[in-house]
Design a protein that fits this description.
Elements (H helix, E strand, L loop, with lengths): L6 H5 L5 H5 L1 H4 L1 H6 L5 H5 L1 H8 L5 E6 L4 E5 L15 H7 L7 H7 L8 H6 L1 E10 L2 E8 L2 E9 L6 E8 L11 H14 L4 E6 L3
Parallel strand pairs: 1-7
Antiparallel strand pairs: 1-2, 2-6, 3-4, 3-6, 4-5
Length: 206
Amino acid sequence: MKEKYTEDSIRALEAGEHVRMRPKMYFEKCFSENSLDALPFEVLCHAFDEYFDGNCNEIELTVWINSFSVKYNTGMSLEIRKNQKISNAEFIMTKIGACSNLKKHLAVGQEFCGLGMATINFASDKCKLTTVWNNLKGTFEFKNGETLTKNIESFSSEVSYTEILVQPNNLLFENLHFTSKGIEEKSSEIKKRLKDLNLIVNDLIE
């Protein structure tokens, strides 16, 4: 008799293997709703944190049938982490970890802030991060959560921003796609909870 997998045994696997092997465990909401509509709001975890810290007051969400992008008016730190040789931005995008700030997490709502960006990155065919922070510009490309390319360069700018483009893995999500109704419902709920946030939604779903 084969031994059953448990959540602990799955987490013992390296990198994002556990996410790709058991997507229904991590993305239960997507499969129960039969859509990808929950994903963009999980990717906004960093933006929500910055909102509560007073650093972010505008988010632009653009959604296509099988991909989406988010852009918000604050940058991700490009400081290199000690003893890891990667920036904080790359760490956020490639290390598993749900929202760790309980107070902020509860204010947004568990349904919008539970997975962490790295989890979604591990389940994506393509992910691109561009961020401007402290007169630096970082550009990163990922596939299945692995860093393909990265570049950090000097960039003189009076404004900071972060833009993330995500194309979820079609096979992992069993051909689920985004819906206008679901995106509108979740966006409206965010606007009710975060009243000082200017959330712009571009619905390009066809």
